[in-house]
């Protein structure tokens, strides 16, 4: 696990580089623009639809009884907007993740590669379309599992753990592809995923735990309606910063793993050639 801690330290220092701080602006503005429009046009219709659904199926009495039995009676008045926000939260993560993957990750990979691994050949085993496909495919699975685990929010500590695990899997899937898209071949990327599965999952899960904070701030908008636009903007900004740090963490770990993989392959080839000559 030494490589995980070394990569974390290098990512922490790089997070404060001027390029990294400026890099957060464009994905933040893109995500903020998308969500400002989406919430303005669709949040109230979504809340109205859920309210009508609850009224039609007499779900208010059921939810009130259930929440009170769990000692969460204060949530009965906001159960509909709470469900709406829980449903929108994965989509917020998706937009931040895609914008970071498309806009920031190529720059992060080049920043880390050129500064710290200039000897690595770029074998171009990935593409922008591949990055979007991996993000969308992973997010489809993520959303399905997220919906299945929504009842766990009645037990907040367990919900945080599940959210961290889900986000850890998703970030590992997306960030490894984006980090190695320029530098590794497809075969090298799959080999690194296979040989470093657990350290990469650790990075993803730790990042996923950090990702619980923006979600908590976003859901806080239910209890503070006046502050909701501000809380939504803060949540998006934090998601962008966390994803950029996570991208740096994965970049340092994956490029170091790639450099070691190629060094081992070169050493093996150098050992084989003299043997063949003799």
Notes on the structure:
There is one protein chain. This protein has 278 residues and is an all-alpha fold. 83% of the residues lie in helices and 0% in strands. It has eleven helices and no strands. α5 runs antiparallel to α6 and α6 packs antiparallel against α7. The protein is elongated and about 75 Å long. The model has no long low-confidence stretch (mean pLDDT 80).
Q: What labels would you give this structure?
A:
about 280 residues; about 0% strand; mainly alpha; elongated
Q: Structural class per helix/strand content?
A: mainly alpha
Tell me the overall shape: elongated
Residue stretches low in confidence (pLDDT < 50, at least 5 long) are none
Distance between the first and last residues' Cα: 40 Å
| Share of residues in strands | under 5%
The major β-sheet equals:
none
Q: Helix and strand succession?
A: HHHHHHHHHHH
Mean pLDDT score? 80
Count up the helices: 11
Overall radius of gyration: 22 Å
Give the strand tally.
0
The portion of residues assigned to helices is over 70%
């Amino acid at each position: 696990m030494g490589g995980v801690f070394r990569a974390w330290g290098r990512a922490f220092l790089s997070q404060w580089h001027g390029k990294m701080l400026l890099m957060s602006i464009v994905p933040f503005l893109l995500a903020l623009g998308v969500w400002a429009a989406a919430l303005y046009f669709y949040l109230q219709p979504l809340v109205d639809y859920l309210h009508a659904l609850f009224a039609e199926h007499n779900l208010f009495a059921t939810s009130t009884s259930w929440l009170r039995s769990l000692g969460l009676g204060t949530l009965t008045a906001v159960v509909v907007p709470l469900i709406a926000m829980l449903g929108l939260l994965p989509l917020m993560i998706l937009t931040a993740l895609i914008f970071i993957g498309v806009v920031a990750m190529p720059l992060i990979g080049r920043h880390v590669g050129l500064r710290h691994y200039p000897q690595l050949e770029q074998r171009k085993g990935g593409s922008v379309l591949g990055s979007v496909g991996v993000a969308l495919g992973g997010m489809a699975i993520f959303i399905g599992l997220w919906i299945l685990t929504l009842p766990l929010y009645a037990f907040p500590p367990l919900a945080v753990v599940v959210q961290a695990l889900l986000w850890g899997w998703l970030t590992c899937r997306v960030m490894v592809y984006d980090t190695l898209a320029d530098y590794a071949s497809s075969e090298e990327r799959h080999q690194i995923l296979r040989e470093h599965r657990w350290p990469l999952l650790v990075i993803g899960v730790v990042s996923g735990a950090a990702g619980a904070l923006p979600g908590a701030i976003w859901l806080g908008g239910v209890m503070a309606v006046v502050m909701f636009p501000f809380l939504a903007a803060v949540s998006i900004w934090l998601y962008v910063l966390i994803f950029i740090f996570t991208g740096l963490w994965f970049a340092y770990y994956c490029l170091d793993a790639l450099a070691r993989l190629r060094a081992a392959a070169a050493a093996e080839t150098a050992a084989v050639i003299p043997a063949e000559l003799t």
